């Protein structure tokens, strides 16, 4: 299990019961302190990562940082980073990334993650897996005793071709697990979510940056069992591209709490 270390008391501006977005900002800014001029950076996706992108942009603008190259983990991150003035490149030109900073949906005590609520899990896993150091930034609502326990989805990216068959195979894999359910992610909150049924699906799927679909897995009681084994079993299903469990990838997790920041190191 990861060791929690160096809890830091909040500054005066952080001490007045900050709302969740302020905690995200605090975690992000702490992570950006690790950025050095000349680094190749993996740029995360989501509302927490947004604070990091904006901060890196500010530090570039005022000359504290120079010669940064950013590798975005999504089209969203590319647009946000470009707006912040961060020069961009890709994994082909920079197959080794010095430091990635990104949020997460869940963090377990061993620093395993669930990511992909924003649908960017594939590019995130590619960029973060190519990183010398991957620093996760979260507020403390993301800490869970085991993955899946928050009730949020564990996403699986699948190719559109034959997706209903892939969904059935995922359903079969977890058949009998108490409280298990799965849904094809839909494109809009107004669209009716599709639940698994023998006789058909509502169509209007969410489409990822890679033109794939997402199947969201739900585990009422969290995922029990060997996560690496479960990962292998999901990835063995033809039609599955990747899943949102990030096992052993995080180097450290910066957790912002109302009473200060805690850094969990691997
Ligand atoms: C996107 C992600 C995000 O990092 C994750 O969903 C956390 O987002 P937020 O910081 O907005 O809570 O994995 O695919």
UniProtKB/TrEMBL annotation:
Family classification: Belongs to the ribose 5-phosphate isomerase family.
The protein's name in its UniProt record: ribose-5-phosphate isomerase
E.C. numbers: 5.3.1.6
Pathway the protein takes part in: Carbohydrate degradation; pentose phosphate pathway; D-ribose 5-phosphate from D-ribulose 5-phosphate (non-oxidative stage): step 1/1
InterPro entries xrefs: NagB/RpiA_transferase-like, Ribose-5P_isomerase, Ribose5P_isomerase_typA_subgr, Ribose5P_isomerase_type_A
Region (Disordered): 1-22
Residue spans crossing the bilayer: none
Catalytic activity, reaction form: aldehydo-D-ribose 5-phosphate = D-ribulose 5-phosphate
GO biological process terms, semicolon-separated: pentose-phosphate shunt, non-oxidative branch
Keywords associated with the record: Isomerase
Catalytic class of the enzyme: isomerase
Pfam families: Rib_5-P_isom_A
Organism whose genome encodes this protein: Musa acuminata subsp. malaccensis
Alphabetical list of PANTHER family matching this protein: RIBOSE-5-PHOSPHATE ISOMERASE 2-RELATED, RIBOSE-5-PHOSPHATE ISOMERASE 3, CHLOROPLASTIC-RELATED
Ranges of Low complexity composition bias in the record: 1-19
């Amino acid at each position: 299990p990861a060791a929690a270390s160096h809890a830091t008391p909040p500054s005066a501006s952080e001490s007045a019961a900050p709302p969740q977005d302020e905690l995200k900002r605090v975690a992000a800014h702490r992570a950006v302190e690790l950025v050095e001029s000349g680094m190749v950076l993996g740029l995360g996706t989501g509302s927490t990562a947004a604070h990091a992108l904006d901060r890196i942009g500010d530090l570039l603008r005022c000359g504290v940082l120079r010669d940064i190259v950013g590798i975005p983990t999504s089209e969203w991150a590319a647009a946000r980073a470009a707006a912040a003035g961060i020069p961009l490149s890709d994994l082909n030109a920079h197959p080794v990334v010095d430091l990635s900073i990104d949020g997460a949906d869940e963090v377990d005590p061993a620093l395993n993650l669930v990511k992909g609520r924003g649908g960017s899990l594939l590019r995130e896993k590619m960029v973060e897996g190519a990183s010398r150091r991957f620093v996760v930034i979260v507020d403390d609502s993301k800490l869970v005793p085991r993955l899946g326990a928050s009730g949020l989805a564990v996403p699986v990216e699948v190719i559109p071709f034959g997706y209903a068959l892939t969904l059935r195979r995922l359903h079969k894999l977890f058949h009998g697990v108490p409280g298990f359910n799965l849904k094809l992610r839909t494109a809009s909150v107004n669209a009716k979510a599709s639940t698994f049924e023998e006789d058909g699906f509502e169509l209007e799927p969410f489409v990822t940056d890679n033109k794939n679909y997402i199947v969201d897995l739900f585990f009422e009681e969290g995922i029990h069992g060997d996560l690496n084994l479960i990962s292998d079993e999901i990835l063995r299903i033809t039609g599955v591209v990747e899943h949102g469990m990030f096992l052993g990838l995080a180097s450290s997790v910066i957790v912002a709490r109302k009473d200060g920041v805690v850094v969990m190191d691997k």
